[in-house]
Amino acid sequence: MIKTIAKPAEKKVTACGECRSTCQSACKTSCTVGNQSCERITREQNIEKK
Amino acid sequence: MIHVFSYHDKRYIYDTGSGALHECDDATARYLKGEPVEISDEELKETVEAIEGLRREGLLDAPETQARPIKSPEVKALCLHVSHDCNLRCRYCFADEGAYHSVREVMSFETAKAAIDFLLRESGNRKVLEVDFFGGEPLMNFDVVKRTVYYAKEEAAKLGKRFLFTTTTNGLLLDDETVAFLNEEMENVVLSVDGRKEVHDAVRKTVNGKGSFDAVIGKIKQFVKARGDKHYYVRGTFTAKNLDFSKDVLFLADNGFDSISLEPVVTDIPDLQIREEHLPTIEAEYEKLCDEYIRREAEGRGFLFFHFHVDLEGGPCLAKRVSACGAGNEYFSVVPNGDIYPCHQFAGDAAWRMGNVFEGKLDGRLREKFARSCLFTRKKCGDCFAKFICSGGCSANNYHYSGDIDEPYPMTCVMMKKRIECAMHVLAERKARENS
């Protein structure tokens, strides 16, 4: 049995550089890119929600 | 590359190439790891077919694309050290209790203004810029924080840009005025509390050597209440003295904080330092926290623990994932005299001084070093499943451990990998609840 839990959304744009600087989030010692979300996807989702 | 791992009775497969996470049964996990499998021929056939199906979909053993790192010359963020002084004397402070191994001083408005001008000038076409007010304790220089925010907003508007501001504070100087300002102007506020009173007070001392918990906890609670739904993090540090740190995270959650981060200390103070022999205890503690985290979420009283959030579906693109943190290239720290460093963790170390905001130019050799640094220059990360999530870790931690920003710090790697596995389990449990 194999069940897919999650797979990345297809990115319409990559390397746009809009994302926040990695070290600006919470911890200032071990912030990682994996803890971030794509700014574009988040923004588009927020627009869809509205 | 695939990473097959267990969490209690659950088996997961994380495919680094596609970024997909799968749950599987024990037989499939064993088969994928090349271990003996005691199942019928029919079951084995089904297992192999399922694996091949995912391979065809590009969700298993997917090739790892050699994405180009994002290395734009545009500067996007500054950490402004508006105060190299602090009203606390935390034993583990990487910043030498606020003084950064130099004199205690605060940043003048002229220097902060020059830093903002530098950022606006060097940001090219970038529209959204970030400034983090940091210390020491930045609220000890509140007037400059305020004036800098107003100046930055005014100048950015002229150029069609905008700023996102963050302040990191120990909470001691929070009052009606500072709370109102921070809640109005800061996109994010990071508040330092270590958890239980006895844990906090053991290391976070006032100038007079007393524990600071009672002086800050009420103020921080009031601040968060007034903040409404705007972003904040209550951020603590754990040391060798509280390896049972899950209790501190839960203590913070029980006190009404729903956005929490707790980080392993970076210090060489013998009684506080995290050592290799602590790692099994720390890994078990992350699991303990993870179990309770899931239980609370299922009961509708969940909270956000920073490291248990890994966005596998909407996360950054691969180019971002291989680019490392951006320190020294798109992100810099500016100390009170205007000197520029790759990030706050390098501040005060003359070998890493990259320029001064009044000179307006950066050390090309050092910037090139950071611009070149990415996941692919971190050779030891090549066969690690976590590489597209951690991007090779913190350059400063790497440097302080090995003398090389590209040499990962093994202790951090162990903790990072455990947190990522926990985060994936959290995600799987959440999906299972949603589907039921």
Secondary-structure element sequence of chain B? EEEHHEEEHEHEHEHHEHEHEHEEEHHHH
The secondary-structure class of chain A comes to alpha+beta
Low-pLDDT stretches of chain A are none
Q: Which radius of gyration of chain A do the C-alpha atoms yield?
A: 14 Å
What characteristic shape of chain B results from the CA principal axes? globular
The neighbouring-strand order within the major sheet of chain B is 12-11-10-9-8-7-4-13-14-15
Overview of the structural elements:
The complex is a heterodimer of chains A (50) and B (436). Chain A is 22% helix and 10% strand. Chain A is built from one helix and one strand. Chain A is extended, with a radius of gyration of 14 Å. Chain B is of the alpha/beta class and 436 residues long. Chain B is built from 14 helices and 15 strands. Chain B has helices at 26-32, 41-57, 109-122, 142-158, 176-185, 197-203, 213-227, 246-254, 279-298, 318-321, 364-372, 387-390, 395-402, 410-435, and strands spanning 2-7, 10-15, 20-24, 77-81, 83-84, 105-106, 128-134, 162-169, 188-192, 231-238, 259-264, 304-305, 331-334, 339-341, 355-356. A ten-stranded mixed β-sheet of chain B has the order 12-11-10-9-8-7-4-13-14-15, covered by helices on one side. A three-stranded antiparallel β-sheet of chain B has the order 1-2-3. In chain B, strands 5-6 form a two-stranded antiparallel sheet. In chain B, helix 3 (109-122) packs parallel to helix 4 and helix 9 packs parallel to helix 14. The model of chain B has no long low-confidence stretch (mean pLDDT 94). The chains are: A alpha+beta (50), B alpha/beta (436). Chains A and B meet through strand 1 and helix 1 of A and strand 3, helix 2, strand 7, strand 8 and strand 11 of B. Strand 1 (2-6) of chain A pairs antiparallel with strand 3 of chain B, so a sheet runs across the interface.
